[in-house]
Each structure stands twice: as C-alpha cells, then as structure tokens.
Amino acid sequence: MEIYTNLIKRYSGKKVLVVGLGVQGGGLGVAKFFAELGAKVTVTDLRSEMELANSIKRLKSYPIVFHLNKHLLQDFLEADIIFKGPSVPWNLPEIIEAEKQNIPIEMELAFFTKHCPAKIIGVTGTRGKSTTTNMIYLALQNAKINCFLAGSLPGISTISLLKSVTAEDWVVMEIPSWPLAAFHRHKISPHIAVFTNFYPDHLNFYKSMDDYLYDKKAIYMYQTPQDYLVAARQLQKIIGNDRPQSQVFYTDDSSFSEASISLPGKHNLENANISLKVLEIVGIDKQKAEKSIVGFKGLPYRQQIVRIKDKVIFINDSTSTTPVATIKAIDTFHDKPIILLLGGKSKNLPYGQLLEKLQGVEKIILLKGSFTDEIEPLLKKQYPDKVSLVFTDMDKAVQFAFQSAGNFENGAYILLSPAATSFAMFKNEFERGDCFNEIVKKI
C-alpha cells in the first residue's frame, strides 16, 4: 500500500492525458487508475463515441473528460504526464510537441514495472507469449506462490495491481513489442525475462525486422547480473551478440515429449520447456512444475478444439495472424485432411513458405481482406482446385467448410488459422474467434 499512497501524493490534482482508449479498452485501466488517485484525467482518441461505447460506459462514474474523433494539441501541452496507448505511434505530431516541452510520455507496462515492488517475470516473443505466460502463472498458483497475471491480456488492468502487490509477490506479465519500446526509454527489464521465439511480424507497423527485433530486445538489455534470461535455442546467436549482463539459459526439447503434454504441436513443447526452466529459477519443485505444465489445457483461440461433429474436428486458431503461425498450425494437425479458413488484413509479411505449405491442405476457404487480395491470384494459379471464392460472411464460410468436409469418409479438420489480422471483418482476433465458435456450436 505504500507504493499506492505515494502515487496518490504524487498525482492527485495532476493533469493526466490518456492517448488511445481503444476498442479493447487498452487505456481504460490507466484512466480509471489515475481518476481514483485524484488526478484530472482527459482521454483522447481518434475513434468515435459509438466505436468506444463499451469502454466509455465503464468509465461513466468517474469525472473524466473525453475528447474524441480528434486530438487537441492543447491537451498534450497542458498535461503533467501523458500515457500513450500501444498502437499510438511515437511520431504522432502532438506527442513530438509534448516531448519538446519535456512532458513525460509513459506507457502502462513500463510505468508499472518501474513502480512494482514484486519480482516480475516478463514474457515476450512473436508466438507463444500468452500460452507461456499462463502456463507459468498456473504453475505458480498450484505451488501456492502469491502471484498476479499482468500485461497485454484481454480484460486485465496491469496498472491497478499497484494498489495491492507487495515485495513478496510474483507478477507474470505478457509484454508484446510495442510496450517494450518504453522499456528502452526507461532502460528497464524484468527480473526474469522470457523470449519464446522470433519470426517476421508487425511489418505493417515497423519499418523493418531490425526495428521490430530492437523493441523485443528490451526484455533483457537492461538486466543486471542478479537477473535471469530464459530463451529458445533459436535465439542464441541473436542474444549472444548483445552479451547480456544477466544469467542466460537456452532451452531445448529434452524435458517433455509431445505425447506427455496436453497441448498439441512442437511449438507448445518449446513453451513447456521454457516454462519449466523459469519455474526452476523461481524455486518450484521440478515434479510439481512438470505436473502443472502437463495438465495445462491451453487458451481460447489458440489451436482450440471447439467441437467434433460427424468426424469433423473444428479448430479455432484465430490468434494466428501471421503466415508462420498458420504453418505451425498446419504442421500440428496433420493426421486428417485440413480445410483451412484463411485470410484477412495484411501485415506486410513474407508468405512464400506458407504458399508452399498449403500443398498439404485439401481445401482453402478465403476470408476477405487485403492479405487475401495479395495471395488469391497466386493461390488460384498454384492450387486452382483447392481455392474457394472469397467469403465476406464467416457463417457462410464455415457452413461451406462443413459441407466440403462431407467429402472425407474418415473425417477432417476445419481449421480457422487466418495468417492475417481480423480487421477487415472484425474488431479484433478475439471477436473473430468468438464468431467462429458461435457458428460451430449451432451446426
């Protein structure tokens, strides 16, 4: 409580600007937290009141000022502190002007890390962040360790944990690349850094892979000799060139077999081995840690088995928003014919390997979006007998997939693994996943 009391003293009456409330409520927790501290909070977002209705409704009991559909430079220049949402660019003109006036620009996860008295396990990587974060968290809970789940996970307000977290606690925090940019600015890294893997992603946001990798590296670049880094063997050369100060451990596949864990796929074997090493560092008994990991059932939208009907297995892998992720899904479900729901909005990522991997897919059902526009001509040329028309309706796409599955006597997989973002048809990948699940349940 001492941390929270000090924050009240520091920010009560101060002008706090939250830039980017977000349709997923990304800035909601920050706005609420500072309003409760007694700060004068203003929220600014380029979206409309209608688009942000759900988030605004949850803040209606607080004296918060909303400036929507535009940014007002005055809001930025009059603020005592500015909190930037993950999707808000650092080169936003109003942010640049505020920095010229030495107004501090913060992001939620870095602010939390600076003030958090507990030991933090920070998890990043192109794939496997959420699974590894939750796998570690569950094992700590099972070991009766007082711990908190934090970071870029749906429905979690990380900053609000500053009300209750203590030096005796552990925090397991998922940290994507965008929030890590602020870790560079403050030269901070978590006590235990976890780096699951690195593949092309977010090139619709970053200028290059090097820029994307640089943000990721903040997870370990500011660690001390008292800290730890656990990473996949794939990253040894990248990390080794940086000569981190922390104690570094690279994992391999020796601790588990694919048959021994509940989650399918070699990538989940990698997640399990990384999690086990982290738990060993924390001091959890190895047998107890292994039992927790083996029993972990996975998360929604990540190769989730939704239903089995008439030998047809429906798989929801909506969070696969990159070609690499979809390749891994195809590799995982290889014992039956695959009917793949593919497509959405492009991230400007290379997809040559995915096109090659689609040789092993029986049917490709396309969902509309700019990525689909890019690959459709290539698919029609390379796989003319496999490719459907482009669907603008998920219901019709799933129904068509189920009809197609009837051609396979021994059953098939209907795999939603789009290799692209959801924004052409949905607010986010979770809404896309929920829509798929609801349709499947009604078949």
From TrEMBL:
Q: What's the EC number here?
A: 6.3.2.9
One Pfam match, given by its short name, reads MurD-like_N
Keyword Phosphoprotein present in the record's keywords: the answer is no
Record localization: Cytoplasm
- Pathway named in the protein's UniProt entry: Cell wall biogenesis; peptidoglycan biosynthesis
Species lineage, top-down? Bacteria, Candidatus Roizmaniibacteriota
This protein's GO CC annotations: cytoplasm
Q: What GO molecular function annotation could you give as one example from this UniProt entry?
A: ATP binding
Ranges of residues in domain Mur ligase central: 123-232
Please name the NCBIfam families in this protein's record.
murD
SUPFAM superfamilies in UniProt: MurCD N-terminal domain (SSF51984), MurD-like peptide ligases, catalytic domain (SSF53623), MurD-like peptide ligases, peptide-binding domain (SSF53244)
UniProt keyword Zinc-finger, yes or no = no
Gene3D superfamilies attached here? Answer: Mur ligase, C-terminal domain, Mur-like, catalytic domain, NAD(P)-binding Rossmann-like Domain
What is this enzyme's catalytic activity, as reactions?
A: UDP-N-acetyl-alpha-D-muramoyl-L-alanine + D-glutamate + ATP = UDP-N-acetyl-alpha-D-muramoyl-L-alanyl-D-glutamate + ADP + phosphate + H(+)
Kindly report, in one word, the top-level EC class recorded for this enzyme: ligase
* Protein task: Cell wall formation. Catalyzes the addition of glutamate to the nucleotide precursor UDP-N-acetylmuramoyl-L-alanine (UMA).
What is the recorded name of this protein?
UDP-N-acetylmuramoylalanine--D-glutamate ligase
List the keywords (alphabetical): ATP-binding, Cell cycle, Cell division, Cell shape, Cell wall biogenesis/degradation, Cytoplasm, Ligase, Nucleotide-binding, Peptidoglycan synthesis
**GO biological process assignments:** cell division; cell wall organization; peptidoglycan biosynthetic process; regulation of cell shape
- In this chain the Mur ligase C-terminal domain maps to 302-418
